Amino acid sequence: MYIFPINGVFDNNGYDTLSLKNYKKSIFVAISRQGLFFIPILLFCSHFYGLLGIEVSQSIANIASFFVALPISMGILKYFKNNNDYKKNLAVQYVS
């Protein structure tokens, strides 16, 4: 429940990287959430903590994936800030 707000980073990151045609980064962030972190954390936590480990493993995987997605999101924001061609294309799109 408390981890829910950081899920927006994954969604926005996925959409932004796809729109910029950075498919590898988009796939990496999507895989990191469910495959790269969740499965190993689930196996580890369930072995050592039992049912409690199963309950908290998704939250821990979301936090770990957040720290993977954060630098990618910051790079995208820097690209949007510095790319004048993107701003011109966006203005033309809304005008026409």
Outline the structure in words.
The protein has 96 residues and is mainly alpha-helical. It has one domain. It has 4 helices and no strands. The protein has helices spanning 7-19, 23-49, 51-82, 84-95. Helix 1 (7-19) crosses helix 3 and helix 2 (23-49) packs antiparallel against helix 3. It is elongated and about 55 Å long.
Give a quick account of the main beta sheet: strands, pairing sense, barrel closure: none
Q: What's the helical proportion of residues?
A: over 70%
State the oligomer: single chain
Total of domains: 1
Tell me, what's the shape? elongated
Mean pLDDT figure: 80
Number of beta-strand segments: 0
Distance between the termini: 42 Å
By DSSP (H or I, 4+ residues per run), the number of helices equals 4
Give the uncertain stretches in residue-range form.
none
Secondary structure category: mainly alpha
What is the strand content?
Answer: under 5%
SSE run: HHHH
Cα radius of gyration in angstroms: 17 Å
Supply the key terms.
4 helices, 88% helix, mainly alpha, 96 residues, 0% strand, elongated
In short:
With 96 residues, the chain is mainly alpha-helical. The protein has one domain (7-95).
Topology of this protein?
Layout: H1 7-19, H2 23-49, H3 51-82, H4 84-95
